[in-house]
Design brief:
270 residues, Pyruvate Kinase, Chain: A, domain 1, YojJ-like (1, five-stranded mixed sheet, 12 strands, 31% helix, binds adenosine-5'-triphosphate, binds manganese (II) ion, EC 2.7.7.85
């Protein structure tokens, strides 16, 4: 005996809901049939046909971010409230559920990670597509060299008013959207040059090479980040856009909304 029996019993005692992260059909069905509390599935796709479902925009590798997204989504969709005690179950290694985490929804700091995707001006799929491009850029860099990039997504009219052009806009008369494979290549190419990309609510690429000039008052971004991140944070406070930044110096991807850093992730983990 490991002596952990009591710990495991305490983990599962008096829970109000179960959150299953990307479960297989077999494990979902086994649990939903037995459970006397609501079972919520959190996954990129609802392949198991769950009644209570929270859509993950990407499989956050950081477990805390994945859980946080689930909690904030659960509260937003009114599956749970801040007092709910949740057993999160997931599969980190081979097949089947191998990890359980007990958490009270209200103990998790609300960061707005769910809001950033679901309640932004831009469509969630547009934000997900931009995030995927930026992660791809972060992984490969530009011809092996690290590259920085700044994407401002949504509320494009206002963003254009708060910025100026640094160079000829290659997207001037085009009607291209993020997510299109050709566009991914173009964006990677143009990201070698300075300034920001501006993307509309529906994913249209409005401009490259924009120098952002938002009011920076009241913007509180972590110390040590430079002007690109400051401009990203500030534009999201001054407009209803969100911003996704790839840092050339530390290689991390960061997302800003409402003037605040909402999450950061390491593209190498994806
Ligand atoms: N206001 C702005 N609008 C658009 N792009 C900007 C703005 N300010 C800086 N940048 C871009 O950010 C680049 C890097 O600047 P800086 O090193 O100060 O930022 P940083 O936050 O430290 O980013 P990194 O982590 O990538 O170095 C600049 O070369 C420029 O292309
Ligand atoms: Mn820098």
């Amino acid at each position: 005996m490991s002596g952990l029996g009591g710990v495991v019993t305490d983990l599962v005692a008096d829970i109000d809901a179960v959150f299953l992260f990307s479960p297989s059909t077999a494990s979902y069905e086994a649990i939903v049939d037995e459970s006397d509390v609501p079972v919520v599935v959190v996954a990129v796709e609802n392949t198991v046909g769950a009644e209570l479902f929270i859509e993950l925009p990407i499989e956050f590798r950081e477990i805390k971010e994945r859980i946080r997204f689930g909690m904030e989504g659960g509260i937003d969709q009114e599956y749970i409230d801040t007092g709910t005690i949740i057993l999160c179950a997931m599969n980190l290694f081979d097949d089947g559920i191998d990890s359980v985490i007990r958490v009270r929804a209200g103990e998790f700091t609300h960061t707005g990670i769910y809001d950033l995707f679901v309640n932004s001006r831009a469509e969630p799929s547009v934000i997900r597509n931009v995030l995927e491009v930026v992660i791809g850029l972060g992984k490969k860099g530009q011809k092996g060299k690290p590259v920085g990039a700044l994407f401002v997504v949504g509320d494009a009219g206002k963003v254009m008013n708060k910025s100026r052009s640094l160079s000829y806009n290659p997207f001037e008369k085009s009607h291209v959207h993020v997510g299109d494979p050709i566009v991914d290549v173009m964006l990677k190419e143009f990201s070698r040059l300075d300034g920001a990309f501006v993307i509309s609510d529906s994913g249209k690429i409005v401009s490259a090479y924009r120098y952002l000039e938002p009011a920076a008052e009241g913007v509180d971004i972590p110390k040590g980040l430079g002007t690109r991140h400051m401009a990203a944070g500030a534009i999201t406070r001054d407009t209803n856009a969100i911003a996704i930044v790839l840092s050339e110096s530390d290689g991390l991807v960061r997302a800003f909304s409402g003037g605040e850093l909402i999450f950061e992730l390491d593209p190498e983990a994806y």
